[in-house]
């Protein structure tokens, strides 16, 4: 049975961020998709999730924040 690469506690991950300030947990073995850059890692899954929880405090895309005057 295949393991979901986004839920493998034994794997290494990156935290990615895009131009909208949105974050993603990404397996370190996979190529970083266009439009995303590495923000943290490679590290274990929990460390990356902790990083996301600490720094991604506003779920709104950056363009919406700007449109709302904030």
From TrEMBL:
What GO CC terms are in its UniProt record? cytosol
Query: How is this protein named in the record?
Result: Protein mbtH
Instruction: Name any Gene Ontology BP term.
Output: siderophore biosynthetic process
Residue limits of the MbtH-like domain?
A: 4-54
Q: Which InterPro entries match?
A: MbtH-like_dom, MbtH-like_sf, MLP_fam
Q: What is the lineage of its organism?
A: Bacteria, Bacillati, Actinomycetota, Actinomycetes, Kitasatosporales
Q: Which Pfam families match?
A: MbtH (PF03621)
């Amino acid at each position: 049975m295949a393991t979901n690469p986004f839920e493998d506690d034994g794997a290494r991950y990156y935290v990615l961020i895009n131009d909208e300030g949105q974050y993603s947990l990404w397996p370190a073995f996979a190529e970083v998709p266009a439009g995303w850059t590495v923000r943290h890692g490679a590290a274990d899954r929990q460390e990356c999730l902790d990083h996301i929880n600490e720094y991604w405090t506003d779920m709104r895309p950056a363009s919406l924040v700007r449109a709302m005057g904030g």
